[in-house]
Design brief:
The complex is a heterotrimer of chains A (221), B (56) and C (225).
Chain A (H helix, E strand, L loop, with lengths): L1 H21 L12 H29 L2 H33 L7 H21 L4 H32 L15 H42 L2
Chain B lengths: L5 H44 L7
Chain C lengths: L1 H20 L1 H21 L4 H32 L2 H7 L4 H30 L8 H27 L4 H29 L3 H30 L2
Helix pairs in contact in C: 1-5, 2-3, 2-5, 3-5, 3-6, 3-7, 5-6, 5-8, 6-7, 6-8, 7-8
The chains are: A mainly alpha (221), B mainly alpha (56), C mainly alpha (225).
Protein backbone atom coordinates (compact mmCIF):
# COMPACT_ATOMS: atom_id res chain seq x y z
CA UNK A 1 0.00 0.00 0.00
CA UNK A 2 2.78 2.39 0.86
CA UNK A 3 4.31 1.89 -2.56
CA UNK A 4 0.99 2.76 -4.10
CA UNK A 5 0.67 5.81 -1.87
CA UNK A 6 4.10 7.05 -2.89
CA UNK A 7 3.41 6.39 -6.55
CA UNK A 8 0.14 8.33 -6.30
CA UNK A 9 1.77 11.23 -4.53
CA UNK A 10 4.63 11.49 -7.00
CA UNK A 11 2.30 11.19 -9.97
CA UNK A 12 0.04 13.90 -8.57
CA UNK A 13 3.01 16.18 -7.99
CA UNK A 14 4.24 15.67 -11.52
CA UNK A 15 0.73 16.37 -12.79
CA UNK A 16 0.58 19.50 -10.66
CA UNK A 17 3.82 20.75 -12.12
CA UNK A 18 2.63 20.11 -15.64
CA UNK A 19 -0.74 21.71 -15.01
CA UNK A 20 0.59 24.95 -13.61
CA UNK A 21 4.04 25.36 -15.06
CA UNK A 22 4.56 23.16 -18.10
CA UNK A 23 1.21 23.72 -19.79
CA UNK A 24 0.95 27.11 -21.48
CA UNK A 25 -1.77 29.68 -20.92
CA UNK A 26 -4.70 29.43 -23.22
CA UNK A 27 -5.03 32.07 -25.90
CA UNK A 28 -8.70 32.72 -25.20
CA UNK A 29 -9.24 31.60 -21.64
CA UNK A 30 -6.04 32.62 -19.96
CA UNK A 31 -5.20 30.62 -16.87
CA UNK A 32 -8.64 29.60 -15.71
CA UNK A 33 -8.75 26.88 -18.38
CA UNK A 34 -6.38 24.84 -16.20
CA UNK A 35 -9.45 23.73 -14.27
CA UNK A 36 -9.98 21.52 -17.30
CA UNK A 37 -7.22 19.13 -16.25
CA UNK A 38 -8.82 18.27 -12.95
CA UNK A 39 -12.32 18.49 -14.42
CA UNK A 40 -11.81 16.06 -17.29
CA UNK A 41 -9.65 13.72 -15.17
CA UNK A 42 -12.43 13.55 -12.56
CA UNK A 43 -14.94 12.84 -15.27
CA UNK A 44 -13.11 9.90 -16.82
CA UNK A 45 -12.41 8.47 -13.37
CA UNK A 46 -16.04 8.79 -12.29
CA UNK A 47 -17.20 6.87 -15.33
CA UNK A 48 -14.68 4.10 -14.80
CA UNK A 49 -15.79 3.99 -11.17
CA UNK A 50 -19.40 3.52 -12.15
CA UNK A 51 -18.48 0.78 -14.56
CA UNK A 52 -16.76 -1.00 -11.67
CA UNK A 53 -19.89 -0.55 -9.55
CA UNK A 54 -21.82 -2.29 -12.31
CA UNK A 55 -19.35 -5.15 -12.72
CA UNK A 56 -19.16 -5.70 -8.97
CA UNK A 57 -22.95 -5.60 -8.67
CA UNK A 58 -23.51 -8.11 -11.44
CA UNK A 59 -20.94 -10.48 -10.02
CA UNK A 60 -22.41 -10.16 -6.56
CA UNK A 61 -25.96 -10.88 -7.69
CA UNK A 62 -24.72 -13.80 -9.75
CA UNK A 63 -22.06 -15.39 -7.53
CA UNK A 64 -22.63 -13.70 -4.13
CA UNK A 65 -18.94 -13.03 -3.96
CA UNK A 66 -18.18 -10.74 -0.99
CA UNK A 67 -15.19 -9.36 -2.84
CA UNK A 68 -17.37 -8.29 -5.73
CA UNK A 69 -19.62 -6.44 -3.35
CA UNK A 70 -16.62 -4.78 -1.70
CA UNK A 71 -15.40 -3.59 -5.08
CA UNK A 72 -18.83 -2.23 -5.99
CA UNK A 73 -19.20 -0.43 -2.69
CA UNK A 74 -15.71 1.04 -2.58
CA UNK A 75 -15.94 2.11 -6.23
CA UNK A 76 -19.27 3.78 -5.54
CA UNK A 77 -17.82 5.78 -2.67
CA UNK A 78 -14.69 6.87 -4.48
CA UNK A 79 -16.67 7.43 -7.67
CA UNK A 80 -19.08 9.65 -5.80
CA UNK A 81 -16.18 11.79 -4.62
CA UNK A 82 -14.74 12.15 -8.12
CA UNK A 83 -18.17 12.86 -9.59
CA UNK A 84 -18.73 15.54 -6.97
CA UNK A 85 -15.42 17.13 -7.94
CA UNK A 86 -16.61 17.03 -11.52
CA UNK A 87 -19.79 18.90 -10.60
CA UNK A 88 -17.88 21.39 -8.46
CA UNK A 89 -15.15 22.23 -10.97
CA UNK A 90 -17.57 22.42 -13.89
CA UNK A 91 -19.56 25.48 -12.79
CA UNK A 92 -16.39 27.12 -11.51
CA UNK A 93 -14.97 26.87 -15.01
CA UNK A 94 -18.25 27.72 -16.68
CA UNK A 95 -18.96 30.93 -14.82
CA UNK A 96 -15.91 32.91 -15.99
CA UNK A 97 -15.97 31.47 -19.50
CA UNK A 98 -19.67 31.14 -20.36
CA UNK A 99 -21.03 33.62 -17.85
CA UNK A 100 -23.41 31.09 -16.33
CA UNK A 101 -22.98 28.55 -13.55
CA UNK A 102 -25.10 25.87 -15.12
CA UNK A 103 -27.17 24.92 -18.14
CA UNK A 104 -29.19 21.86 -18.96
CA UNK A 105 -27.18 20.84 -21.97
CA UNK A 106 -26.62 17.19 -22.79
CA UNK A 107 -23.35 16.64 -20.99
CA UNK A 108 -24.22 18.51 -17.80
CA UNK A 109 -27.58 16.80 -17.51
CA UNK A 110 -25.94 13.40 -17.95
CA UNK A 111 -23.32 14.21 -15.35
CA UNK A 112 -25.96 15.23 -12.88
CA UNK A 113 -27.81 11.98 -13.52
CA UNK A 114 -24.60 10.01 -12.98
CA UNK A 115 -24.04 11.79 -9.71
CA UNK A 116 -27.59 10.91 -8.63
CA UNK A 117 -26.95 7.27 -9.52
CA UNK A 118 -23.98 7.24 -7.16
CA UNK A 119 -26.12 8.84 -4.47
CA UNK A 120 -28.87 6.28 -4.99
CA UNK A 121 -26.44 3.39 -4.63
CA UNK A 122 -24.85 4.76 -1.47
CA UNK A 123 -28.19 5.72 0.04
CA UNK A 124 -29.69 2.27 -0.41
CA UNK A 125 -26.57 0.80 1.09
CA UNK A 126 -26.67 3.00 4.14
CA UNK A 127 -30.21 2.02 5.04
CA UNK A 128 -29.55 -1.61 5.76
CA UNK A 129 -27.95 -2.99 8.85
CA UNK A 130 -27.85 -6.53 7.56
CA UNK A 131 -24.81 -6.52 5.27
CA UNK A 132 -26.23 -9.13 2.92
CA UNK A 133 -29.41 -7.13 2.35
CA UNK A 134 -27.39 -3.97 1.87
CA UNK A 135 -25.16 -5.67 -0.66
CA UNK A 136 -27.96 -7.31 -2.62
CA UNK A 137 -30.29 -4.35 -2.84
CA UNK A 138 -27.58 -1.87 -3.68
CA UNK A 139 -26.33 -4.30 -6.33
CA UNK A 140 -29.82 -4.30 -7.88
CA UNK A 141 -29.81 -0.50 -7.86
CA UNK A 142 -26.31 -0.48 -9.36
CA UNK A 143 -27.36 -2.74 -12.21
CA UNK A 144 -30.54 -0.83 -13.01
CA UNK A 145 -28.67 2.44 -12.85
CA UNK A 146 -25.97 1.31 -15.23
CA UNK A 147 -28.47 0.04 -17.79
CA UNK A 148 -30.05 3.44 -17.55
CA UNK A 149 -26.90 5.31 -18.52
CA UNK A 150 -26.89 4.62 -22.28
CA UNK A 151 -30.63 5.30 -22.47
CA UNK A 152 -30.11 8.57 -20.64
CA UNK A 153 -27.30 9.42 -23.01
CA UNK A 154 -29.52 8.93 -26.05
CA UNK A 155 -32.55 10.68 -24.64
CA UNK A 156 -30.66 13.67 -23.35
CA UNK A 157 -28.67 14.08 -26.55
CA UNK A 158 -31.83 14.02 -28.68
CA UNK A 159 -33.47 16.43 -26.32
CA UNK A 160 -30.71 18.96 -26.36
CA UNK A 161 -30.22 18.92 -30.10
CA UNK A 162 -33.86 19.80 -30.55
CA UNK A 163 -33.59 22.97 -28.58
CA UNK A 164 -31.29 25.81 -29.57
CA UNK A 165 -28.23 25.81 -27.41
CA UNK A 166 -28.29 28.81 -25.09
CA UNK A 167 -24.57 29.02 -25.10
CA UNK A 168 -22.00 28.22 -27.75
CA UNK A 169 -19.57 25.72 -26.39
CA UNK A 170 -16.25 25.31 -28.01
CA UNK A 171 -15.34 21.90 -26.67
CA UNK A 172 -11.84 22.07 -25.27
CA UNK A 173 -10.97 18.73 -26.80
CA UNK A 174 -11.31 20.01 -30.33
CA UNK A 175 -7.61 19.73 -30.99
CA UNK A 176 -5.42 20.37 -28.01
CA UNK A 177 -1.82 21.44 -28.50
CA UNK A 178 0.51 18.55 -27.64
CA UNK A 179 1.74 20.07 -24.38
CA UNK A 180 -1.81 20.39 -23.08
CA UNK A 181 -2.69 16.94 -24.30
CA UNK A 182 0.28 15.45 -22.50
CA UNK A 183 -0.64 17.33 -19.33
CA UNK A 184 -4.18 16.04 -19.57
CA UNK A 185 -3.10 12.44 -19.89
CA UNK A 186 -0.66 12.73 -17.01
CA UNK A 187 -3.39 14.33 -14.86
CA UNK A 188 -5.93 11.69 -15.81
CA UNK A 189 -3.40 8.99 -14.99
CA UNK A 190 -2.67 10.58 -11.63
CA UNK A 191 -6.36 10.71 -10.81
CA UNK A 192 -6.88 7.12 -11.82
CA UNK A 193 -3.93 6.12 -9.68
CA UNK A 194 -5.51 8.01 -6.81
CA UNK A 195 -8.84 6.33 -7.48
CA UNK A 196 -7.33 2.86 -7.29
CA UNK A 197 -5.51 3.80 -4.12
CA UNK A 198 -8.77 4.97 -2.54
CA UNK A 199 -10.47 1.86 -3.87
CA UNK A 200 -7.93 -0.37 -2.17
CA UNK A 201 -8.36 1.53 1.07
CA UNK A 202 -12.07 0.98 0.77
CA UNK A 203 -11.49 -2.72 0.17
CA UNK A 204 -9.37 -2.91 3.32
CA UNK A 205 -12.19 -1.30 5.28
CA UNK A 206 -14.71 -3.77 3.89
CA UNK A 207 -12.49 -6.71 4.74
CA UNK A 208 -11.97 -5.48 8.28
CA UNK A 209 -15.71 -4.98 8.67
CA UNK A 210 -16.35 -8.55 7.58
CA UNK A 211 -13.72 -9.92 9.91
CA UNK A 212 -15.35 -8.08 12.80
CA UNK A 213 -18.74 -9.38 11.78
CA UNK A 214 -17.42 -12.91 11.80
CA UNK A 215 -15.80 -12.51 15.20
CA UNK A 216 -18.97 -11.02 16.65
CA UNK A 217 -20.98 -13.96 15.36
CA UNK A 218 -18.49 -16.40 16.86
CA UNK A 219 -18.94 -14.64 20.16
CA UNK A 220 -22.67 -14.98 20.29
CA UNK A 221 -22.44 -18.70 19.80
CA UNK B 1 -1.01 38.00 -14.20
CA UNK B 2 -3.82 39.89 -12.59
CA UNK B 3 -6.40 37.93 -14.53
CA UNK B 4 -9.62 38.29 -12.50
CA UNK B 5 -10.60 34.74 -13.45
CA UNK B 6 -7.67 33.36 -11.51
CA UNK B 7 -9.78 33.30 -8.38
CA UNK B 8 -12.01 30.66 -10.00
CA UNK B 9 -8.94 28.57 -10.72
CA UNK B 10 -7.82 28.89 -7.13
CA UNK B 11 -11.23 28.07 -5.68
CA UNK B 12 -11.64 25.06 -7.96
CA UNK B 13 -8.33 23.49 -7.01
CA UNK B 14 -8.78 24.35 -3.34
CA UNK B 15 -12.23 22.75 -3.21
CA UNK B 16 -11.01 19.61 -4.96
CA UNK B 17 -8.14 19.43 -2.50
CA UNK B 18 -10.48 19.90 0.47
CA UNK B 19 -12.93 17.27 -0.82
CA UNK B 20 -10.19 14.68 -1.14
CA UNK B 21 -8.72 15.55 2.23
CA UNK B 22 -12.13 15.15 3.84
CA UNK B 23 -12.64 11.79 2.17
CA UNK B 24 -9.17 10.61 3.18
CA UNK B 25 -9.93 11.68 6.74
CA UNK B 26 -13.22 9.81 6.65
CA UNK B 27 -11.45 6.67 5.46
CA UNK B 28 -8.75 7.00 8.13
CA UNK B 29 -11.30 7.56 10.86
CA UNK B 30 -13.32 4.50 9.87
CA UNK B 31 -10.11 2.51 9.59
CA UNK B 32 -8.99 3.33 13.13
CA UNK B 33 -12.44 2.67 14.56
CA UNK B 34 -12.54 -0.75 12.94
CA UNK B 35 -9.03 -1.44 14.19
CA UNK B 36 -10.09 -0.58 17.73
CA UNK B 37 -13.18 -2.78 17.47
CA UNK B 38 -11.04 -5.61 16.16
CA UNK B 39 -8.53 -5.27 19.02
CA UNK B 40 -11.33 -5.21 21.56
CA UNK B 41 -12.99 -8.29 20.11
CA UNK B 42 -9.68 -10.14 19.94
CA UNK B 43 -8.85 -9.37 23.57
CA UNK B 44 -12.31 -10.47 24.68
CA UNK B 45 -11.88 -13.67 22.73
CA UNK B 46 -8.53 -14.24 24.45
CA UNK B 47 -10.15 -13.69 27.86
CA UNK B 48 -12.89 -16.12 27.05
CA UNK B 49 -10.45 -18.79 26.02
CA UNK B 50 -8.18 -18.16 28.99
CA UNK B 51 -7.96 -21.14 31.33
CA UNK B 52 -10.03 -20.75 34.53
CA UNK B 53 -8.05 -19.84 37.67
CA UNK B 54 -6.79 -22.90 39.48
CA UNK B 55 -8.20 -23.51 42.88
CA UNK B 56 -6.17 -25.16 45.53
CA UNK C 1 -50.67 -20.87 -18.97
CA UNK C 2 -50.15 -21.13 -15.27
CA UNK C 3 -48.02 -17.99 -15.08
CA UNK C 4 -50.74 -15.85 -16.58
CA UNK C 5 -53.24 -17.27 -14.10
CA UNK C 6 -50.95 -16.39 -11.21
CA UNK C 7 -50.48 -12.86 -12.47
CA UNK C 8 -54.22 -12.49 -12.90
CA UNK C 9 -54.96 -13.73 -9.38
CA UNK C 10 -52.42 -11.41 -7.80
CA UNK C 11 -53.65 -8.54 -9.94
CA UNK C 12 -57.22 -9.14 -8.80
CA UNK C 13 -56.02 -9.27 -5.22
CA UNK C 14 -54.57 -5.79 -5.52
CA UNK C 15 -57.75 -4.54 -7.16
CA UNK C 16 -59.92 -6.06 -4.47
CA UNK C 17 -57.77 -4.54 -1.73
CA UNK C 18 -58.07 -1.19 -3.38
CA UNK C 19 -61.80 -1.53 -3.86
CA UNK C 20 -62.29 -2.13 -0.15
CA UNK C 21 -60.32 0.85 1.09
CA UNK C 22 -60.23 3.03 -1.98
CA UNK C 23 -57.39 4.96 -0.42
CA UNK C 24 -54.77 4.81 -3.10
CA UNK C 25 -56.88 5.70 -6.09
CA UNK C 26 -58.64 8.56 -4.35
CA UNK C 27 -55.46 10.10 -2.98
CA UNK C 28 -53.53 9.96 -6.23
CA UNK C 29 -56.43 11.47 -8.17
CA UNK C 30 -56.82 14.27 -5.69
CA UNK C 31 -53.10 14.90 -5.51
CA UNK C 32 -52.79 14.99 -9.28
CA UNK C 33 -55.65 17.44 -9.63
CA UNK C 34 -54.14 19.56 -6.91
CA UNK C 35 -50.87 19.82 -8.82
CA UNK C 36 -52.70 20.79 -12.01
CA UNK C 37 -54.75 23.37 -10.17
CA UNK C 38 -51.81 24.94 -8.37
CA UNK C 39 -49.80 25.24 -11.57
CA UNK C 40 -52.76 26.75 -13.36
CA UNK C 41 -53.12 29.19 -10.53
CA UNK C 42 -49.44 30.05 -10.54
CA UNK C 43 -49.00 30.55 -14.26
CA UNK C 44 -52.52 31.49 -15.38
CA UNK C 45 -51.74 30.62 -18.95
CA UNK C 46 -53.64 32.43 -21.64
CA UNK C 47 -54.54 30.59 -24.83
CA UNK C 48 -51.27 29.80 -26.61
CA UNK C 49 -49.36 29.45 -23.37
CA UNK C 50 -51.50 26.51 -22.38
CA UNK C 51 -49.96 24.49 -25.14
CA UNK C 52 -46.47 25.31 -23.98
CA UNK C 53 -47.16 24.55 -20.33
CA UNK C 54 -49.53 21.63 -20.45
CA UNK C 55 -47.14 18.78 -21.31
CA UNK C 56 -44.92 19.72 -18.38
CA UNK C 57 -47.88 20.24 -16.05
CA UNK C 58 -49.41 16.91 -16.98
CA UNK C 59 -46.27 14.91 -16.53
CA UNK C 60 -45.44 16.60 -13.25
CA UNK C 61 -48.90 15.68 -12.00
CA UNK C 62 -48.46 12.12 -13.28
CA UNK C 63 -45.03 11.87 -11.65
CA UNK C 64 -46.26 12.89 -8.21
CA UNK C 65 -49.40 10.82 -8.44
CA UNK C 66 -47.24 7.87 -9.35
CA UNK C 67 -44.92 8.27 -6.39
CA UNK C 68 -47.88 8.35 -4.03
CA UNK C 69 -49.32 5.27 -5.65
CA UNK C 70 -46.10 3.25 -5.54
CA UNK C 71 -45.54 4.06 -1.90
CA UNK C 72 -49.07 3.02 -0.99
CA UNK C 73 -48.84 -0.14 -3.00
CA UNK C 74 -46.06 -1.57 -0.92
CA UNK C 75 -47.04 0.02 2.36
CA UNK C 76 -50.22 -2.04 2.30
CA UNK C 77 -48.22 -5.22 1.76
CA UNK C 78 -45.91 -4.51 4.64
CA UNK C 79 -48.67 -3.89 7.12
CA UNK C 80 -49.91 -7.42 7.38
CA UNK C 81 -46.73 -9.19 6.37
CA UNK C 82 -48.29 -9.95 3.03
CA UNK C 83 -44.95 -9.65 1.35
CA UNK C 84 -43.60 -12.51 3.44
CA UNK C 85 -46.61 -14.57 2.49
CA UNK C 86 -46.07 -13.86 -1.17
CA UNK C 87 -42.40 -14.67 -0.93
CA UNK C 88 -43.13 -18.05 0.64
CA UNK C 89 -45.60 -18.98 -2.06
CA UNK C 90 -44.04 -21.29 -4.67
CA UNK C 91 -44.32 -18.79 -7.45
CA UNK C 92 -41.80 -16.98 -9.55
CA UNK C 93 -41.06 -13.63 -7.91
CA UNK C 94 -41.13 -12.00 -11.33
CA UNK C 95 -44.83 -12.81 -11.56
CA UNK C 96 -45.50 -10.86 -8.39
CA UNK C 97 -43.73 -7.96 -10.05
CA UNK C 98 -45.84 -8.20 -13.19
CA UNK C 99 -49.06 -8.33 -11.20
CA UNK C 100 -48.05 -5.25 -9.23
CA UNK C 101 -47.04 -3.58 -12.46
CA UNK C 102 -50.50 -4.17 -13.94
CA UNK C 103 -52.32 -3.00 -10.83
CA UNK C 104 -50.28 0.17 -10.47
CA UNK C 105 -50.57 0.86 -14.17
CA UNK C 106 -54.33 0.64 -13.93
CA UNK C 107 -54.54 2.93 -10.91
CA UNK C 108 -52.21 5.50 -12.41
CA UNK C 109 -54.06 5.33 -15.73
CA UNK C 110 -57.34 6.10 -13.99
CA UNK C 111 -55.75 8.99 -12.11
CA UNK C 112 -54.23 10.28 -15.35
CA UNK C 113 -57.62 10.21 -17.04
CA UNK C 114 -59.02 12.34 -14.25
CA UNK C 115 -56.03 14.68 -14.38
CA UNK C 116 -56.30 15.06 -18.15
CA UNK C 117 -60.00 15.78 -17.91
CA UNK C 118 -59.46 18.40 -15.20
CA UNK C 119 -56.67 20.12 -17.08
CA UNK C 120 -58.70 20.13 -20.26
CA UNK C 121 -61.35 22.09 -18.40
CA UNK C 122 -59.13 24.46 -16.51
CA UNK C 123 -56.61 25.22 -19.24
CA UNK C 124 -59.33 25.42 -21.88
CA UNK C 125 -57.45 22.96 -23.98
CA UNK C 126 -58.88 20.23 -26.14
CA UNK C 127 -56.91 17.01 -26.38
CA UNK C 128 -59.25 15.63 -29.01
CA UNK C 129 -57.45 16.64 -32.23
CA UNK C 130 -54.35 14.62 -31.39
CA UNK C 131 -56.14 12.18 -29.13
CA UNK C 132 -55.01 8.89 -30.60
CA UNK C 133 -51.30 9.67 -30.45
CA UNK C 134 -51.68 11.44 -27.14
CA UNK C 135 -53.10 8.28 -25.61
CA UNK C 136 -50.30 6.15 -27.08
CA UNK C 137 -47.65 8.48 -25.68
CA UNK C 138 -49.25 8.65 -22.24
CA UNK C 139 -49.73 4.88 -22.19
CA UNK C 140 -46.11 4.01 -22.93
CA UNK C 141 -44.73 6.80 -20.79
CA UNK C 142 -46.82 5.56 -17.89
CA UNK C 143 -45.84 1.96 -18.53
CA UNK C 144 -42.14 2.76 -18.33
CA UNK C 145 -42.63 4.91 -15.28
CA UNK C 146 -44.65 2.27 -13.45
CA UNK C 147 -42.10 -0.39 -14.40
CA UNK C 148 -39.39 1.56 -12.59
CA UNK C 149 -41.70 2.77 -9.82
CA UNK C 150 -42.87 -0.67 -8.77
CA UNK C 151 -39.32 -1.99 -8.77
CA UNK C 152 -37.91 0.83 -6.71
CA UNK C 153 -41.04 0.93 -4.58
CA UNK C 154 -40.23 -2.61 -3.54
CA UNK C 155 -36.60 -1.72 -2.83
CA UNK C 156 -37.55 1.40 -0.90
CA UNK C 157 -40.24 -0.34 1.15
CA UNK C 158 -37.46 -2.35 2.77
CA UNK C 159 -35.87 0.73 4.21
CA UNK C 160 -36.81 3.04 7.01
CA UNK C 161 -37.24 6.28 5.09
CA UNK C 162 -39.22 4.67 2.33
CA UNK C 163 -41.27 7.72 1.37
CA UNK C 164 -38.14 9.68 0.62
CA UNK C 165 -36.15 6.78 -0.72
CA UNK C 166 -38.45 6.06 -3.64
CA UNK C 167 -38.26 9.41 -5.45
CA UNK C 168 -34.53 9.69 -4.82
CA UNK C 169 -33.89 6.24 -6.27
CA UNK C 170 -36.24 6.77 -9.17
CA UNK C 171 -35.13 10.21 -10.23
CA UNK C 172 -32.00 9.41 -12.25
CA UNK C 173 -33.52 6.35 -13.85
CA UNK C 174 -36.73 7.96 -15.08
CA UNK C 175 -35.04 10.97 -16.65
CA UNK C 176 -35.18 9.55 -20.20
CA UNK C 177 -38.80 8.50 -19.85
CA UNK C 178 -39.90 11.91 -18.76
CA UNK C 179 -37.84 13.75 -21.33
CA UNK C 180 -39.27 11.48 -24.02
CA UNK C 181 -42.82 11.73 -22.73
CA UNK C 182 -42.81 15.51 -22.45
CA UNK C 183 -41.15 16.04 -25.81
CA UNK C 184 -43.51 13.64 -27.54
CA UNK C 185 -46.56 15.11 -25.81
CA UNK C 186 -45.56 18.65 -26.77
CA UNK C 187 -45.02 17.62 -30.36
CA UNK C 188 -48.26 15.65 -30.61
CA UNK C 189 -50.40 18.34 -29.01
CA UNK C 190 -48.88 20.97 -31.26
CA UNK C 191 -50.26 19.02 -34.17
CA UNK C 192 -46.96 17.79 -35.56
CA UNK C 193 -46.99 14.85 -37.93
CA UNK C 194 -46.30 11.54 -36.13
CA UNK C 195 -42.94 11.30 -37.88
CA UNK C 196 -41.72 14.16 -35.73
CA UNK C 197 -42.14 12.42 -32.45
CA UNK C 198 -41.90 8.80 -33.58
CA UNK C 199 -38.38 8.41 -32.24
CA UNK C 200 -39.48 9.58 -28.80
CA UNK C 201 -42.29 7.03 -28.82
CA UNK C 202 -39.79 4.38 -29.80
CA UNK C 203 -37.64 5.44 -26.86
CA UNK C 204 -40.62 5.12 -24.51
CA UNK C 205 -41.42 1.65 -25.79
CA UNK C 206 -37.78 0.52 -25.63
CA UNK C 207 -37.43 1.89 -22.12
CA UNK C 208 -40.57 0.11 -20.98
CA UNK C 209 -39.49 -3.20 -22.44
CA UNK C 210 -35.95 -3.00 -21.08
CA UNK C 211 -36.98 -2.08 -17.59
CA UNK C 212 -39.85 -4.51 -17.35
CA UNK C 213 -37.56 -7.34 -18.37
CA UNK C 214 -34.74 -6.18 -16.09
CA UNK C 215 -37.06 -5.75 -13.11
CA UNK C 216 -38.73 -9.09 -13.79
CA UNK C 217 -35.33 -10.77 -13.59
CA UNK C 218 -34.09 -8.89 -10.53
CA UNK C 219 -37.30 -8.85 -8.49
CA UNK C 220 -36.60 -12.12 -6.69
CA UNK C 221 -33.50 -10.53 -5.16
CA UNK C 222 -35.53 -7.65 -3.84
CA UNK C 223 -38.01 -9.95 -2.16
CA UNK C 224 -35.34 -12.25 -0.82
CA UNK C 225 -34.78 -12.23 2.87
Amino acid sequence: MTAHAILTLVWLLVALYMIFIYAPSDVNQGNVYRIMYVHVSSGWTAMIAYFLVFVGSVRYVWKRSPFADDVACASAEAGFIFCSCLLITGPLWAKPIWGIWWTWDARLTLTFVLWLLFVAYLLVRSFFINPNRAALLSAVVGIIGFVDVPIDYMAIRWWRTQHPQPVIMGGPNSGLPPSMEATLFVSAGAFLCLFFYLLRQGLRLAEARREIGQLRRQFSE
Amino acid sequence: MSDPNNKFLFIAYSLVWIVFMLYAWSLARRQSKLKRDLEELKSRAALKDAPPPRES
Amino acid sequence: MRSLEIIWVLFLKDLRLEWRRRETLASICVFGILVVFLLDFAFQPAGEESLRLLPGVLWIAFAFAGILGFNHSFAAERENACLEGLRLAPIDAGLIYLAKLLANFLFLAVAEAVIIFASSLWYNFSFLPAFKWFVVIVAFGTLGYVAVGVMFGAVASNTRMREVMLPVLQFPVIVPIFIGAIEATTSALKGDAPGQFASWVRLLIAFSVIFIVLSFLLFEYVLEE
